[in-house]
Amino acid sequence: MTVFLLGHSFRYEIENIVRLFFPFSHFPYLTEGTPQGDYILTEISGGQAKVTVSFQGKRETSQKALSPAPDKGEQEMALCRLLFALLESITGIHPAWGVITGVRPVKLFTSRIRKGQPRDEIRKEFSEDWMVSDEKIDLCLETMDAQQPIIQSVREKEFSLYLSIPYCPTRCSYCSFVSQAIALKKNREGIPAYVEHLVKEIYFTAEIAKRNGLTLRSVYMGGGTPTAISPSLLKQVTDAVKEAFSLTGAVEYTIEAGRADTVTKEILSVIRQSGATRISINPQTFRDDVLERIGRRHTGAQVEEAFFLAREMGFSSINMDLIAGLPGDDFDGFCQSLEKAVSLNPENITVHALTVKRGADLYAGGEYPLDPFVPQRMVQEAYRRLKEEGYLPYYLYRQKNTPGNLENVGYAKPGQISYYNIVMMEELQTVLGVGANAVTKLVGEKGIVRIYNYKYPDEYFSRFSDILAKKKEIDIFYGEEAKKNG
């Protein structure tokens, strides 16, 4: 298959549409030449948007007249809609999100509600113009409604704190994060130095927050797997958070205890003493053969044991993650894992669609699902089953290279919605990030400013002074905000 881009420069947009139907294929994109064999031709010419698809002996063409002086947005959307409709027709595949390729679709719905657009008009727009299925429109509206209490509670000059612990017991095959496997001696030996630097950055960031009059509302410690480090080192981090920041105004404090092989009574005791109110214990699947295949060194039974231990120690807000589309899994296996998670009755269940990223071992090995649309059934069943059990979808985001053009959805019992997940995903509030690969996201009237920490622990150590220097942008941002509001 060859893709031709004639008379326009919308490669990124066209490529995103093509990937919906051919998620693991790589095609050449040409701006000249004679189409032959299997090809996609996209063209802007003579006041027309035109698309031709030739695939496996089928050939279809569609075109649309543009307005007299079309802008780039009109041209882009015309090509994308024509291409989407033709690929649907020729392949028989029906991506449920239509031509929406952004990561935060709920924001599109929320913006229209804020402008006073009636829901029936919103439904019509997304169905007809964006080609989104009724199921995904319902999901977005339900998610938007669940978020409203938290959205309405957000106040100016509040912030959330994100702490990165980029270490795991082993590296999962689907993971593209920068987390380091502590099974390797050199990674394990670097953890004390990492914690030392992280603690310094915590205190440094707290001083900046104080002098800018910022109030802490939530804390999220992720990674990696924070509980992969020793209880004593984790305590150094949690003690620094408790000393450096005032937690009195915080409504939520989450620490990920994602891997069952890191969950012990000692580590849970540190988390309890930290003031954390919420933890994640993430099975991804309860099938032992799939766990082994993706590189996890624990069993489904160990996940249950970790969950029960956390309950015994008084944790009343627990999230569990599942992944739809793991290699070696199938629809029945996913449903069994879903039923097991439901039977444990955690407060949150997050369902991720497998994303095959280039930094993951899974991508390098080519071990992704042969039928990328099987996960659609898994995600649909999770939506049906979790709603049946009283869970509400409350946050949603999408990623590139996801088989079936699917989404990740956080479900929660009533009253158990995660504050951090909403304000972070919907970009409602400043998030101050500390640690390797952490991102500070400053949110204000002037828009969003991002400050990136260096990704890898080695960079984090060697360029630590640069990381602290870059945080001066926080003072600049809030100084300018104060002038605007003064």
Structure description:
The protein has helices spanning 11-21, 72-91, 105-114, 119-129, 134-153, 185-189, 191-211, 231-244, 265-274, 288-293, 300-312, 331-344, 361-365, 374-388, 419-425, 457-462, 464-470, 472-485; strands at 2-6, 29-30, 39-45, 48-55, 58-65, 158-165, 167-168, 180-181, 215-223, 252-256, 278-280, 318-324, 348-353, 392-397, 408-412, 430-434, 439-444, 447-452. With 486 residues, the protein is an alpha/beta fold. The strands form four sheets. It has a nine-stranded mixed β-sheet with strand order 14-15-13-12-11-10-9-6-16, sandwiched between helices. The protein has a five-stranded mixed β-sheet with strand order 2-1-3-4-5, with helices on one face. The chain has a two-stranded parallel sheet with strand order 7-8. The longest helix is centred in the middle third of the chain and has 21 residues, at 191-211. The protein is globular.
Coarse shape:
globular
Strand order of the largest sheet: 14-15-13-12-11-10-9-6-16
| Number of DSSP helical runs | 18
Q: Which structural category fits the helices and strands?
A: alpha/beta
Rg of Cα set: 24 Å
Give a quick account of the main beta sheet: strands, pairing sense, barrel closure: 9 strands, mixed
**How many individual β-strands?**
18
Per DSSP, what share of the residues sits in E-state strands of 2 or more residues? Answer: 15-25%
How many angstroms does the end-to-end distance come to? Answer: 58 Å
Stated plainly, the CATH topology of the largest domain is called: pyruvate-formate lyase- activating enzyme
Count of the separate structural domains? 3
Determine the mean pLDDT. Answer: 92
Give the name of the CATH architecture of the largest domain.
Answer: Alpha-Beta Horseshoe
Per CATH, the class of the largest domain reads Alpha Beta
CATH superfamily placement of the largest domain: tm_1862 like domain
Helix proportion range: 40-55%
Note poorly predicted spans: none
